[in-house]
Amino acid sequence: DQDEETSNTSESPEPVSLADASAEKATQGSDTDLEVEDPEKAFVGITGTELYLEACRLMEVVPVSHFIQNLAKPYINLNHHGLGPKGVKAIAIALVSNATVTHLELEDNCILAEGAICIAEMLRENSSLQELNISNNHLDTAGAEAIASLLLDNMSYLHTLQLSGGLWLQLAGRSHCLCTFVSLQGNYQVKELDLSHNEFYEKGGQLLGQMLASNTTLEILDLSWNHLRRQGTVALGTGLRSNSALKILNLSWNGVGNEGALALGEALKVNTVLVHLDISNNQINNEGAKKLCRGLEVNGKLKILKMANNPLTTEGATALVTSVRKNPKSMMEEINISNVLVNETFIKLLDLVCQTHPELDVIYGEVEGCIAKIPKQHPNPMKVIQNYLKEHNLRLWDFFRNIDKDGNMKIPVAAFQRAMMQQSSIPLDRVQIGELVRKLDRNRTGVVDY
User: Fold this and answer.
1) For residue 382, how many other CB atoms are within 10 A of its CB?
2) Which of 60, 325, 389, 450 has the smallest C-beta neighbourhood within 10 Å, fewest atoms?
3) What distance in Å separates the CA atoms of residue 69 and residue 88, rounded to the nearest whole number?
């Protein structure tokens, strides 16, 4: 429901203000009611839907009905609406003084640099918008610089920003990202940032490493699909050593390799905040896994390690589980090596480790030889619990409340697994407890909500 002409605008914009844009249209010799002596007053006295409709008239674009219908709500999703730079400019004008919208989705609208500049200018005035998605919008250098300047000046209230694919120009074969990294060094507002699919390569990784070394606010960072490779990952590892804020890092699909795994392992020796690390699909073999384990053997914070689709065998899987066994401080709750074919020796080791680390859940592939054998039948764990409760005249509610120490009816999966492994009243083994957790937490939220 947006004029397609707006999607084809590609001229380099002048960084004019939203007020100037409206003033220019208002002073043109047209029949519009906005012709006033002082063009700065073009939008004075109008707000909300009326303001947006006037902005659409000035920009000569068709109003988006979905935006109008949700303007008074906190969440607006305009992804894939074909807005173009002029359509986004009209939306930016309407949101300058808006105090309701807190989450705005604008992915894949071909807003170009002109639209990004308008969004950045709006954010300098708006005090309510906290989450913004402008991924895959071809921001170009000027657009990236506008967003970077906004971040550097700490002039917005954004705490979540998605820029996936938005900084990459396929035709030019380069990324307009360098200024964004520099701006994040001094930013103390943004806590969650998605920079995936931006083709940063090694140079981008080096700049990101510098940013991580000094940023004290960013908690969640997605850098997947960026071709960081060995040098970029080594630089990131250096930054992680001194970082004191980042909790979740996604480095999947980056060609990290064994040397990158070594750098991350060295970082994990001293990092005390990172709890979730995703290095799936990174060409890390058994040698690389062992290098990573040097950090896992002493790290006391990491809880989730995702390493699926790396060329690991039972040898690498054994090294990972052994690192947890060697580390009395380990907080590890999940290791995902879902593509690895393990053997019975590994299963026995895992059972042994889970006795001292009952919260640990290792997601692996098949077990060698089990296809030819008749699989061991386990009683339904829920039935086992129900039978126990019936025999002891207890309610299911009482069972969960006894585990729920906080009394909020939500039990973290790790705490639930630990309680089930440590209790001796109900005869359930590690496999049954794992099956029970998957049933109680089907969406893998990390919480058993009873």
Assistant:
1) 14
2) 60
3) 16
